[in-house]
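Input (Branched chain amino acid aminotransferase):
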Amino acid sequence: MEHLQLDWNNLGFNYMKTDVRYISHWRNGKWHESYLTEDNHLHISEGSTALHYGQQCFEGMKAYRCKDGSINLFRPDQNAARMQHSCARLLMPMVSTAQFIDACKQVVKANERFLPPYGTGSSLYLRPFVIGVGDNIGLCSAPEFIFCVFCIPVGGLFKGRLKPSNFFISDYDRAAPNGTGAAKVGGNYAA
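Output:
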């Protein structure tokens, strides 16, 4: 395993391929085939509902090193609960809290060399997501799903860039509670 030569104090928020990611497939009514892989490409059907109807959701959370050297995840149970809410809203199978947290822990442990040292202000960002896949073009829920967790080392999101801003107030409501606005799904970010 090669030694990392990263400037831990000046990381941005950019994609970087790390060693492994966690994948689990949902077929025939259950999650199975969970594994870690070095392959950072997903192989999906061109008819996947994630591509055509936005049947996907994601989370973002951080793992960080503490002063005593231990590693902590920040509120993984809350991220799991929000993902479960998002999955339910989009007619996708839910990932249990236990599987969600276990997947995150496996990814952090397998990619520990990418975890910034304590005191740098940086962390290991985890991106769990669920996408609808499989051969489908009709307007219905996907026949299969993929749950994946990958990670990247990141600096502070607003580090050196947070400045006062002027805001405009409008009647526009991006996060309407009876639509998908209250769920964390990719389509909400287009607006």
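The chain has a mean pLDDT of 89.
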